Amino acid sequence: MMNLLFLQETIQHGQKIAQKAGEHAVEQSNWILRHIHDENVFEFFGKEIHLPHFSLFGIDLSVTKHVVMLWFAAFLLIIILGLGARKVKLIPKGFANLLEILIMFVRDEIVYVNFGKAGKPFVPFFLSLFFYIMFLNLLGLVPFCSTATANIRVTGGLAFISFILIQASGIKQNGLGGYLKNIVPPGLPIWLLPIMVPVEIIGMFAKPFALAIRLFANMTGGHTVIFVLIGMIITFKTWLVVPPPILMAAILGILEIFIALLQSYIFTFLTSLFISLTMFPEH
Amino acid sequence: MFEVNPGVSIWTIVIFIVLLIILRKFAWKPILGILEERENRIKSSLEMADQVKTEATKSLNQYRKLIEEAKTESIKIMEKAEKEGEKVKSDIIRKANTEAENILTKAQKEISIQKEQALEEIKKKSIEFSIDIASKLIASVITIDQQKKLTDKALKEITKNL
Hints:
Radius of gyration of chain B: 62 Å
Order of helices and strands of chain B: HH
Number of domains of chain B: 1
Number of strands of chain B: 0
Strand content of chain A: under 5%
Strand order of the largest sheet of chain A: 1-2
Number of helices of chain A: 7
Oligomer: heterodimer
């Protein structure tokens, strides 16, 4: 009897501990989610700035944390590239060199590699897309900033632009008839059409959807891991565990910089590839 | 977190389009223009360098050929000059030899003539002397005919001895 009572007490005690730990975990996950989640509050040095709500034609166009980041990245880009454009001379020097390397990389490795010289009018679009995504990704690593590209709505918006451009450039290049004919690959037997047409139409929408998900997931995942690592310190509540998570978070931070560049490259490159595929399906 | 709210997407699209328009005008156009200009310049410079190089090789070969030609020419000229020099030398030597021979023969002739003359002179003089001495010695004894005979005899003897 005594034994049973003891057992019960023990179980209750264990349950209490588990409950506490669970509460703690929920607390922590809330804290992490707050950093990834979009909200109408912009936190700056512990101060909370409440952003305005408003809507147009029934659509909620409230300014959120991520919208602020979108503005900020665009603003930074215009300032940096506007100043950089003046520094780019026939004989390159200093900062202009770095800028030129990136620009020539986009031009040669993203646009010309898919389009050849015919992609010249697309170059400004891809440059803007690449630099914008890169800045949004990198700003996510800056203190007090949040990652706009870790928001599926932002990446969805960017993918929507890609989608429109993919279809529009296909129609413009081949005409509406040619565009519709190019939906299925050339040389397909007629009896396969009932299967292939729906598949290809699904593929048409799947491409930008995959673009959006890929960018969103990569940016969210990396940041979440860093937050979880830092969160370990808070969970364990001891100074002894401080060094390993900090070290790992620092290493992951470096990896994040690489991922930020890589994902902007992948997004831009795939958009370029898809556009060239709808424009020149015979390739 | 996933409630349907296209607001942020619309913001994204609008901001991106505005950004694209601004950057296109103020950043991409000038930068891409300069990059293209630089590439064209590098291309043209390289082409020019190639051209200059081929030209330089061409002229180098030309000069080499010229130098080779000049060398053979100079060797020819030198050989010719040597031959001519040899000829002139032998000519001069031959001339000098003949000259010397001429002079020698002339001198020998002269000497012999002179010798003849001197001998003649000596003959005459000695005859005169001997006649003088003889006449002085035997002035009154011998007639003119005898004298003449004697003289002739003496003359004969002298010439024989000579």
